[in-house]
Amino acid sequence: MKKLFFSILFLFSIAFIAEACRPENPEKTANVDGVCYGYDDGEWYVRGFVQDQDSVVLKHKVVINGEKVKVEEIYIQDYMNNTASPRILVIPKGFKAVAQLYLPKLEKLYIPKTVDRTHDICTIMYACFYTPNLKSIIVDKRNKDLKSEDGILFTKDGAYLLKYPAKKTGKEYSIPDNMEFICYGAFGHCELETVYYSKQKKGIESYEQFGVYDTSCKVAESMGFDIDKTKFIGR
Questions:
Q1: Contact present, 80 and 47 (Cβ < 8 Å)
Q2: Residue 181 CB neighbour total at 10 angstroms
Q3: Nearest CA among 132, 97, 107 for reference residue 55
Q4: Which of 46, 182, 224, 232 gives the lowest tally of CB atoms within 10 Å of its CB?
């Protein structure tokens, strides 16, 4: 058990120091129907949007420079210095990863059955979402790796809480008893006032209880909570 625990700590240490795994300046770029694509290491990926839009349904197969290509990853970073964002984003079947998601105006996200990763490969335990206006995440029920419960993103077995939508309605949340890990930043920008946790966890301030690693041991802050506004109560 200790070996597993320290392995988790190692993964978190990678999350803190790792640089983005996609380059700031990809080998090639293209704009198709308002979507920006980047090309790196033999693959095309979604890297942003040309302008704000109400709703966008991405395409798994796209014609770029006269060639029909498959797009399987979303990697939207703020390095583009562009805050263009849809309000609703639908990811179609065929995509495999949402590695980075910098969409400040996004409110609703649809994830298909084929997506099995919602983080950068360099930041395994970090919730790579900058979505301060997100209200709900919906996952195809046929997805074997991820699930959505009341708009919150979990791994399929419920052990990992990956992302709590920042603008989800309600000021209280009760952490499920069977949940073992909260990803770094999972509660970023949330407006919760009261969070309940199982007394068996012996407190949310201990990184040993929820798998969160922080060298300063400010674990609730690492999860993304505003500790000056959120009260934690054992139930």
A1: yes
A2: 17
A3: 107
A4: 232
3-state secondary structure (DSSP) of residue 25: coil
Burial readout 47-75 (b: 16 or more C-beta within 10 A, e: otherwise): bbbeeebeebebbbebebeeeebebbbbb
The DSSP bridge pattern shows strands 129-130 and 108-111 to be: unpaired
Query: What are residue 74's DSSP bridge partners?
Result: 46, 98
Predicted confidence band of residue 6 (pLDDT cuts 50, 70, 90): very low
Give the Cα separation of 110 and 215 in Å (integer). 34
Between 21-35, 44-58, 157-171, 191-205, the lowest mean confidence (pLDDT) is in: 191-205
> H or E segment at 38?
strand 35-40
- Burial status of residue 133 (CB atoms within 10 A of its CB: 0-12, 13-18, 19 or more): middle
Query: Nearest Cα to 166, choosing from 127, 139, 204?
Result: 127
Instruction: Say what the pTM is.
Output: 0.84
